[in-house]
Amino acid sequence: MSKIDELPLSPSQREELTKDLHDGSVAHSAVAAKVTQWGWPLSEKSVRRYRRQIDFVPQEREQAVESSRDQASIIVRPDGGSFSTGVLDRPLDLSTDWNEVLRGFGLDPEIFEVVNDTVAMSKWQQSRRVDNGDRDIVWLYSYRANFRRKIEMPEGFDLDALQKRVQKWTPSIRRRRAEPSPQPPSTFVVCWADWQIAKSAGGGVAATVDRIHESFEMTIARIDELRKIGRNIEKVAIFNMGDPLEGCDGNYSSQLFSIELNQREQLNLVLDLWANGVMSIQPDLFASVLCNHGEWTRRGPGTRPVTTDSDNVGGYLGDTLQRVFDDRAGAPTEWSIPHDEMVTMVNLSGLDVAITHGHKIPSPAKEVEWLKGQSIRLLREQGAEPRLWVTAHKHHLNVTDFGPWWRLQCPSLDGGSKWYTDSSGNWSTPGTMTFLAGLHDPRGWSDLAVLGSGV
Predict the structure, then answer these.
(1) How many CB atoms are located within 10 Å of the residue 181 CB?
(2) Residue 291: its pLDDT value, please?
(3) Residue 273: helix, strand or coil by DSSP?
(4) What's the CA gap between 437 and 349, in Å, rounded?
(5) Model pLDDT, residue 390
(6) What radius of gyration do the chain's Cα atoms show?
(7) Beta 112-129 vs 135-149: how paired, if at all?
(8) Is the same domain home to 304 and 382?
(9) What is the pLDDT of residue 168?
């Protein structure tokens, strides 16, 4: 028996209290105040607890439920959106497709689809007053889902033809034999950053492939140019600075429907392009980093990730390239492929260089602290502190002297970002960053050049 049932009330007071307790228009506080005025202190909490045990629905809630039956809602963006059916008094037939639901919101099923065929359903019981004044228990339902515009390949796009063109590509120029030089030795570095293969912006994947092939030839020409003016290039290094492919989902809202290739096609095309670059440039070292567009974060119950940082295309493609080229003539003799490390450090002509994609840097304001902390960690773990940092991720060139070290930020070769340009008015010019690294220069680097036609 509850506290309210034990109150020593008169029959008329008991009758009035019972009526109030079942009346949805009487608030908890009003019931408690009335009983307190009768001389029996009663808290609002006790009224609320008691009402949970009986057949009680506040009038305002009942009205809200009734009025929300027709309050289906939808958010529509050019690329997709989300919808909610509102409260329904019957379940939908889950054995059929969602075309009728889409049509009910004015969406053409030929153009839009429910993302991953996944719809969230809520089901609950509700007390409802029927015509004769009694109450009955009914089941209510509500459905929510995200929808997207169906992916369409650009008109005239031929993936097979593009893959064959990449596989058959050879540079029009070749690396020349190095001539002896009296200058201190250095390492030529070329940074492959943020290609984001399959991104549809800026001419799409075909235009990106053209820019990449152009960069390979310009890299070969740049090495020869520097050697002609006397630079003593003892080694050539390729850095994969991250995001070689676009991915398919999870980085931003339009990614699901704006890509031109699926994940498997992206991986194969990037591997073919990396093979083009290695065969034409013939580097001594290939180093890679982990990146955000390369994350393969599988989800378990709810949204918890069930894998580690090592599950990343920066590691996988690096491992695969090494397996393909290891011990082949003209292939790299040094490989630096991360497992789950977000920073890769290599020694170039006596200079310790740290490379990272840059997506783990919290913000520009905290970049110095992040670089300092990582430099100290590398000193303790590897016995050396980098004198030069190379990053990417921001898609534009930036060179900063922090004092203890320089930071070179790579531009990208992707087609740009319509969202970024629309929201800021800015854009980055496509290009590939190259430079010489080593102890030949007090800064640790020299002869920086961004290669590309800028289109």
Answers:
(1) 16
(2) 93
(3) helix
(4) 7
(5) 98
(6) 32
(7) antiparallel
(8) yes
(9) 82
Beta bridge partners of 197: 245
- The pLDDT score that the predictor gives to residue 220 is 95
**Scanning the structure block, which residue is given the tokens 């228009």?**
25
Q: pLDDT, tens digit, for every residue of 13-26? A: 888 888 888 776 67
Whether residue 343 is predicted with pLDDT greater than 90 in this model: the reply is: yes
Q: Give me the count of residues in the chain.
A: 455
Of 250, 243, 360, which is closest to residue 297 (Cα–Cα)?
Answer: 250
Within a domain: 123:
yes
Best CA proximity match to 392, nearest among 314, 286, 298? 314
Q: Are residues 280 and 426 in the same domain?
A: yes
Q: How many domains does the chain have?
A: 3
Mean pLDDT is lowest, of 69-78, 294-303, 314-323, 353-362, for: 69-78
Three-state SS string over 24-84 comes to CCCCHHHHHHHHHHCCCCCCHHHHHHHHHCCCCCCHHHHHHHHHHCCCCEEEEECCEEEEE
**Quick check: 136 pLDDT over 80?**
no
Q: For residues 353 and 436, is the Cβ–Cβ distance under 8 A?
A: no
**How many angstroms separate the Cα of 415 from the Cα of each of 208, 210, 421?**
7, 11, 12
Q: Which of 222-226, 323-327, 393-397, 446-450 has the lowest mean pLDDT?
A: 323-327
Distance of alpha carbon 113 from the chain centroid: 22
Together in a domain, 143 and 163: no
Q: Is residue 268 part of a domain?
A: yes
The residues that bridge with 233 in the sheet, in sequence order, are 186
pTM, rounded to two decimals:
0.66
Q: Are residues 271 and 127 in the same domain?
A: no
Rounded Cα–Cα distance for residues 398 and 44 (Å):
63
